[in-house]
Amino acid sequence: MSNGMLVIAALTACLTAGLAATFLSRAPRLSFAVWILAAFLLPVWVGLNVGFFMSAITLLTLGLVVLHSGRFRLAGPDVFMLLFVGMIALLFAAKQVELTYLVSGLLELALPYFWGRIIYERVGSRTVAAWIAGAAVGVAFLAIIEFLTGSNFFVLIPGYEPLRATWAPLQPRAGFLRVEGAFGHSIALGGVLAMSAAFVLAAQMRAWAKIVGLSVVGIAVVLTFSRIGIITFVLSVVLSILVLRSVGTTTRWLVAGLLTVGLLVLVPFLDTVFLDAGGEAGGSADYRGSLTVLLSQVHLIGGATGWEDLVVGDVYLGSFTASTDNAFISVLLRYGYLPTAALFAALAGAVIFAIRTQRMSPAAVAIVAQLPGLFAVAFITQYGVLLWFVVGVAVAGSLTSSTKEADVPETADRSREEIMIMDGAGFGSSSRGR
Fold first, then answer.
1. Cα 380 to Cα 223: distance, rounded to the nearest angstrom
2. Torsion angles phi and psi, residue 13, rounded to 5
3. How far, in Å, CA of 309 to CA of 317, rounded?
4. pLDDT over 90, % of the chain
5. Helices of type H across 244-358
6. Would you call 79 exposed, middle or buried from its count of C-beta atoms within 10 A (0-12, 13-18, 19+)?
């Protein structure tokens, strides 16, 4: 291609991006729809290399935060997140945190959190729940097709080869294909779908539609053959039917019955699968248990360095460099105890706010249900981005006043006047898991 053609192509791309940005800045609901579809459907190896590689979802999140940034009430969890950002920036300046971990902390943890805070203020709970639920059901349906056909078309998407080589290969378990969709790993898909289950139940839909959608999501989670994904899915469903006001009585009983029948049917099947997996499944569990040896290398503040070459007891720590499947330990090794405490204080604060204000939202339920998963998987691919986005949504939902789009139970009188929130209102990597 000639230099002239390259200039024309670059100018056209800039003009198109500018027009899209202008349009999206005035359409927060469309912006959120584009973002959630990108998060669920674009693998992490799709993106741009700008001196360091940035995935498409990270670039999109950054752009949308800039377009929709505005004032929002500062809450306790926000202070902890800002404290985390400030500490890792200072530690990087002091050469106590690596550049890679500074970038991932800012763009994959803090940025999605504040995007959740911002967009919830713009679009409200119903839009957030509806789009997450719809995207999850669609991706779950594709995952079922993936299992039936043995083909994953997402892995055919080209992109940044080091990442693609890491995440694109599919994984078997006991002779079955573990579905992973666009998430690069079955555990990541299972975790995201488990979080989404709370939004499916909270969405403003008929009871039968919730049952069908939840069934599709549940089947897809089972087909990941991820133990932690299945456990957190069950937790999400149980907590949702117990505490979410937007889940009607009929739906509660139908879901409870469906879950009971599903467990009775699937537990023997899954038990057989994991037994047939033998050493592969058992070794994965033993590996996670042995990760605690890494805690001896964690500093009070600053990243652990040189631990890959050490031997503690009879354990060579370098064996853990390829994968550290524990979010807490991974963050501890990267930043130290105090920054990690600040980061997870933001997560804990989101739950505490929800309990204190008696507004347990689907986002708060999803966070609580995911807590066991944080000890079994790091913040890999889109899982980490979506988790911290949901944390931000949970904080925003707990701060929403009763005059702004409160959850309406299915049994509520639909003839009552509803308060509308208009667009624009309120302006004012990880290593590969196992």
1. 19
2. -65, -40
3. 7
4. 47
5. 249-277, 279-290, 327-335, 337-356
6. middle
Give the rounded distance of the alpha carbon of 302 from its chain centre.
Answer: 25
| pLDDT at 321 (0 to 100) | 58
Give residue-wise pLDDT tens across range 113-166.
Answer: 999 999 998 898 999 999 999 999 999 999 999 999 989 999 999 999 888 988
95, exposed or middle or buried, with CB in 10 Å at 0-12, 13-18, 19+? exposed
> CA nearest 434: which of 178, 205, 233?
178
Residues 6+ apart with CB under 8 A from 43: 154, 155, 157, 159, 164, 167, 168, 182, 183, 184, 381
Helix (H/G/I), strand (E/B), else coil: 97: coil
Residue 278's identity, in one-letter code, is: G
Backbone dihedral region of 74: left (phi > 0), alpha (psi from -120 to 50 degrees) or beta? beta
Nearest Cα to 346, choosing from 400, 391, 387? 391
φ and ψ at residue 54, rounded to 5 degrees: -120, 125
For the residues 374-388, what does the mean pLDDT come to?
Answer: 91
Given a contact cutoff of 8 angstroms between Cβ atoms, the answer to whether 375 and 328 are in contact is yes
Specify whether the CB–CB gap between 220 and 260 falls below 8 A.
Answer: no
Query: Do residues 38 and 382 lie in contact, with contact meaning Cβ atoms separated by under 8 Å?
Result: no
Helix (H, G, I), strand (E, B) or coil at 390: helix
Q: What is the dihedral of CA 105, 107, 113, 115, to 10 degrees?
A: 170
CA angle 286, 292, 295 (to 5 degrees): 160
Of 429, 239, 241, 266, the closest CA to residue 334 belongs to 429
User: Among residues 120, 292, 136, 147, which one has the least CA distance to residue 200?
Assistant: 136
- Tokens describing residue 378: 């790091």
Between strands 311-312 and 47-49, the pairing is unpaired
Name which of 16, 113, 105, 182 is nearest 367 in CA terms.
113
Q: What is the pTM of this model?
A: 0.85
Q: Which residues contact 76 (CB under 8 A, 6 or more apart)?
A: 349, 353
Distance CA 179, CA 116 (A): 27
The two beta strands, 47-49 and 53-55, are antiparallel
* Residue closest to 34 by CA, chosen among 14, 55, 64, 13: 64
According to DSSP, residue 412 is labeled: S
